[in-house]
Amino acid sequence: MLTRLPYTLLWIFALPLVLLRLAWRARRQPDYLKHVAERFGRYRVRAPMAVIWVHAVSVGETRAAEPLVRALLEQWPEHSVLLTHMTPTGRETGRNLFRHEPRVLSAYLPYDIGCLAHAFLRHFRPVFGVVMETELWPNLLAACRLRRVPVMLANGRLSARSARRYARLPALTGLTLKALTAIGAQTAADAARLSQLGARRVTVTGNIKFDITPPAALLQLGQTLRARAGARPIVLAASTREGEEALLLEAFTRHAPVDALLLLVPRHPQRFDEVAALAHGLGLQRRSADETVRADTRVLLGDSMGEMFAYHAAADVALIGGSWLPFGGQNLIEACAVGTPVVVGPHTYNFQAVAEDAVRAGAALRAVDADEGMRLAAQLLADRARHETMSAAGRSFATAHQGATARTVDILRNIHTATKS
Predict the structure, then answer these.
(1) Quick one: DSSP state of residue 99?
(2) Local structure of 204: helix, strand or coil
(3) In a 10 Å sphere around its CB, with 0-12 CB exposed, 13-18 middle and 19+ buried, how is residue 269 labelled?
(4) What is the Cα–Cα distance from 88 to 140, expressed in whole angstroms?
(5) Which residues are identified as catalytic?
(6) Edge to edge, what strands does the sheet with 234-240 contain?
(7) Distance CA 367, CA 373 (A)
(8) Which residue in 31, 198, 347, 365 has its CB near the most CB atoms, within 10 A?
């Protein structure tokens, strides 16, 4: 407790600023002002049956959790799954993914103060919990340990940069990691870094994102989007971050064929209008308009949520956002799964192993900057033989790395059995 005391006090003193930030973010995303009571451990929703709790902080983690949630529903048909988030976009993604599954509930996780964590656990009484990737909440995990709620860190990843940050607080980090019942790491490197920080019971399970099956409806939508562009080649800039769009737009005008269409998809929906203003002079249409692409349109803005598989399926080549400036990169597995050749930039530390393995497998190319990235994309559009080779390599790469979900469920089954005995 003494180890967590400064952390807890910091949370308490920071709460007014946290609420101000919530209000500030609501200027662009009004949904931040919905369900605020849940962030303080007060809930209206109640589960009709025993609860398995899965925490996925935002959009990326929620999409990654999809195959695991479906496997949990199948393995424990007498249980419901509570899917918790910290952002409205994560919550909306969860609702879209599981709109036809009544056993999946949605809520916000409370702020990490002990009394709020206990209120959350008292209300839902989960039989066990799963935290996706590396969301470490010291007070929440301490409360779970006190209440004998086993928690697994699944799909765990920890970059060298993040490990150095956690290492600055060795006592708190070590105590938090030891509160976990088990850890499933994506790679051996992730497992080693977690163990060095004090984690126990670490198993390399692989990356659950490889187990995501492209939904047939989104693949069909991808074909529809492609048909609306006619015979034009499509370059996708997927999940771009602030500052990257200007670089990619400039490179596109310099290197892409004159008939090429840039499908530009910002990662955060609150930036759609901002990015639209950047591309307006090039001839812009919005995906939300649901129209055939005009001949004079050079940029189609992907201003929708939950359609990334469709965008990848529509594209001839994908440049992965977050990798052109030092944001750490975004997920490239979805592109590989549908056979779209990938180009990544120099900054992929959030997906380092996946990016390096994809390059080695021939499914991806690495560029030193956005200009070279667009030049490589243009070369792939012109070289159909190389394009087909990379497409096949991407599908094989995605298939070869599947199985993390089953390994994770095996660990959770053992945890659940041990808890009942």
Answers:
(1) T
(2) strand
(3) middle
(4) 21
(5) 61
(6) 284-286, 299-301, 261-266, 234-240, 317-320, 342-344, 364-366
(7) 5
(8) 365
CA atoms in the 13 A half-sphere facing the CB of 224? 12
Start-to-end C-alpha separation, the chain: 29
For 265, what's the count of Cα atoms within 13 Å in the CB-facing half-sphere?
Answer: 26
Identity of residue 268: H
**pLDDT tens digit string along 47-93?**
889 999 999 999 889 999 999 999 999 999 999 999 999 999 999 99
For residue 116 the two structure tokens come to: 């709020």
DSSP per residue, 27-83 = TT-GGGGSSGGGGGT------SSEEEEEE--SHHHHHHHHHHHHHHHHH-TTEEEEE
- Local confidence band at 281 (pLDDT 50, 70, 90 cut-offs): confident
- pLDDT tens-digit readout, 331-382: 999 999 999 999 999 999 989 999 999 999 999 999 999 999 999 999 999 9
- Do residues 182 and 193 touch, judged by C-beta distance below 8 A? no
Contact 203, 180 (CB under 8 A): no
Cβ partners under 8 Å of residue 421, min gap 6: none
**What are the structural domains, with CATH classification, of the chain?**
27-206+403-420 (3.40.50.11720), 216-400 (3.40.50.2000)
Q: Mean pLDDT score of the chain, rounded to an integer? A: 95
- At 1, the pLDDT band (50, 70, 90 cuts) reads low
Contact residues for 80 (Cβ-Cβ < 8 A; gap 6+): 47, 48, 49, 50, 51, 52, 103, 104, 105
- Which stretches within 267-369 are classed as H helix? 272-279, 308-314, 333-337, 352-361
